[in-house]
Write a structure and sequence with these properties.
It is built from 14 helices and 10 strands. By secondary structure, the chain is α+β, with helices and mostly antiparallel strands. α1 packs across α11 and α11 packs across α13.
């Protein structure tokens, strides 16, 4: 896999959920902080997103906004003062209550997709941790064509609910998350990881490590893979990523092991082989040192969290 795919897979749990909303008139609804990531896609019309902390964001047709840290926020037909925000209708009730969405002649209709992803933040990749509280991806001609295509497909599936939609919609939501992160990185509006992904040396090294974390990597072998000297690799990688290549590899192997313990029933021996440890004992020792718990205990705790937080899509 690659670093973006792995970063998403390490934190994604459960099934994403979404709603296609059609609303007119004067309205204001609140989405409470969530242990995951939320998103909105404006299909028609315009509205405002008012995060609990930060500046209001004006959203127009085709705009996409990602809240990767589950920040609480309000969405409304217009900028709202503090009193109006406090009176915002909870989103779940607002979806079921036709009164706040009664059409009025003074306002146009807004159609949007609202959804959320469940995330396990216990071992978040720094790429995901670095995402800002609000990622606004405005609709501009020629910008983010893959994201636009995913939005169109998702909107169509939610509108028609055709055969196979129960498989198509969650898959498209996962694709949407990848494209939102990719589009954010392509904007280059700040942060370390867009620079990392755009650096030929660091990106090549990361691609190699994530493609085969179990390989017997050394600094020399990784430098050859990146096409530079060992000294150049160490300098560029450490400066950009924040840790030396072999330290990053160790961290990623253990993070990958945690993901496999959480998401699979594979025995420890099989997981050890997949992440580059010669024996289950060697993995267990390194895992306990890094996580402060044994692999077995970690798997049991992850299963308990999954049951306690499980919710319908």
């Amino acid at each position: 896999m690659d670093v973006v795919s792995d970063a998403v897979a390490a934190v994604r749990v459960g099934r994403p959920s979404s709603n296609r909303v059609r609303v007119s008139g004067s309205w204001c609804t609140r989405l409470t902080p969530y242990d995951g990531a939320g998103f909105h896609v404006i299909l028609e019309g315009s509205c405002w997103l008012l995060p609990d902390s930060g500046s209001p964001v004006s959203l127009g047709p085709g705009d996409v906004v990602l809240l990767p840290h589950g920040t609480g926020h309000v969405i409304a037909d217009a900028p709202a003062d503090a009193t109006t925000v406090k009176q915002a209708v909870p989103f779940e009730r607002w979806l079921d209550d036709k009164e706040p969405r009664r059409p009025r002649a003074t306002s146009g209709e807004v159609q949007m997709l609202c959804g959320k992803y469940r995330l396990d933040r216990s071992r978040m990749h720094p790429l995901m941790a670095e995402l800002p509280k609000v990622v606004h991806l405005p609709n501009r001609v020629g910008a983010h064509p893959e994201l636009r295509a995913a939005v169109d497909l998702l909107g169509h599936e939610l509108a028609t609910q055709g055969p196979g939609a129960c498989i198509a919609v969650p898959s498209l939501l996962d694709l949407l998350l990848v494209y939102m992160i990719r589009s954010w990185a392509a904007q280059g509006t700040g942060g370390t990881w867009p620079t990392v992904l755009g650096d030929p040396v660091a990106a090549a090294a990361l691609r190699a490590l994530h493609s085969d974390p179990a390989a017997p990597w050394t600094n020399d072998r990784l430098a050859a893979e990146a096409g530079v000297s060992r000294a150049t690799l160490a300098r560029r990688f450490t400066t950009l990523v924040g840790r030396p290549p072999m330290a990053y590899l160790t961290w990623w192997r253990l993070t990958f092991a945690a993901t496999l313990l959480r998401d699979s029933l594979d025995p420890l021996a099989a997981i050890a082989r997949r992440v580059g440890y010669g024996t289950p004992y060697a993995l267990s020792h390194a895992f306990s040192r890094e996580f402060g718990t044994t692999p077995g205990q970690y798997r049991a705790q992850a299963a308990e969290r999954s049951v306690s937080t499980d919710e319908p899509a």
